[in-house]
Design goal:
single chain, 470 residues, eight-stranded mixed sheet, Rossmann fold, alpha/beta, binds cytidine-5'-monophosphate
Amino acid sequence: MPSITVRNLNNSVKQALRERAARNGRSMEEEARLLLAAAEVPAPKHIVSFDDASSSRSATSMNTEAGGKKILLIIGGGIAAYKCLDLIRRLKERGISARVVMTNAAKEFVTPLSIEALNHDKVFANLFDREAEHDIGHIRLSREADLIVVAPATADLMAKMANGHADDLASTVLMATDKPILVAPAMNPRMWSHPATRRNRKTLERDGVLLVGPAVGEMAESGESGKGRMAEPYEIIRSIENLLDTSPKPLAGMRAIVTSGPTHEPIDPVRYIANRSSGKQGHAIAEALGRAGAEVILVSGPVNLPDPSHVETIHVETAREMQQMVETALPAKIAVMVAAVADWRSTDEADEKIKKDGGKGPTSLKLTENPDILKGLGHHENRPDLLIGFAAETENIEEHAKTKLERKKADWILANDVSADFGVMGGNQNSIKLLSASGVETWPQMSKEDVAKRLVDRIANHFDWTTTSI
Ligand code: C5P
């Protein structure tokens, strides 16, 4: 396959790709590449993004709470400055506009021209630029953004910030601002662990400056590795979105536990029992709860998804590990058990790979039933106030779901027809019936993200109603 141009995809596919990429913190091209890899389609030589003005305008329609906000990006002088090109593009995809200030050192690593071409805006660099001072000036630059982001923040820039220097445009803007500041440090590991940097970092944190990263990894300098790599653009974006998100938080102050994905039950060191669950629905619910202000602990089996934002994710393999982590996370106001927990595990996990035993036919596998995590919570002394389970059914959906509601002592069961021809298991759509003591609600077929949002709305309403009715 020679190439794909994202711009030429039809609008609904493009929108779905854009939203998916935003959710996963990837660029649209990366997302397309991963989708093709998952579908085992040979990767095309080129996946071309749209970078013209009209498409960046259409990107502003992306549904993120941070869309329409403005940031001031200060690019410091480090090798990681090249990552800012990707950062700017991802910001544009999300409808977040960026004004850019570069330090003199930054211009040694990326050219203002490349930033201007990508950002369709002038780069500000000179404190005494008479034209710019006339037009916009450092005070306005520092005040008109919703957030200031310093990336990469070099040891020198952090030192200047911590000590109140204001001898160039970047440091002057940072002194003059009344807006929150997020810094993404990037430096050699020795510089990061130097007592001076440690002191400066503490000072900055005391001053209310927020940090993202640095990460541990290879340095651009050959042969060096350690803590000091700048956070990846998608991580910086995630922090920016969190800081810019001013949406209502109806679940603030509530703790929620969510399970997601399948579990893997080992048979021997190389084989395991599993199922087709992708974790998409559970992860979407965890993220939506987090966005609504809940403190979310997501206990996830093995999945091929990034950890959602706004959430603390704990990774487990087996049902018993999942149960232990869920119970450790108690007490919680809300629990949503979405995981497709394997019903059985091998009774005797073999220490060595089980051999075929030439010609004698398959060895039989003795199975033991796994603990039912949802049922365990339903009967727990610390039972969550609102306990929600899922029921994946292929027939008699309501009837089976009702039995589960009672047997597991859940408050709500979200039943889904996994035999539906749009492929619930692993797919992106879902069709839900919500069963509770007060009856059955049938929701239309919708995306798993929309199911998550609708469920979170229902949860928020439930607590409103509970409090006002007391
Ligand atoms: O009994 P069944 O597996 O159909 O029940 C589904 C619901 O119970 C889901 O909410 C699932 O997360 C939960 N469950 C569980 N532990 C198990 C089996 C199911 O928490 N061992």
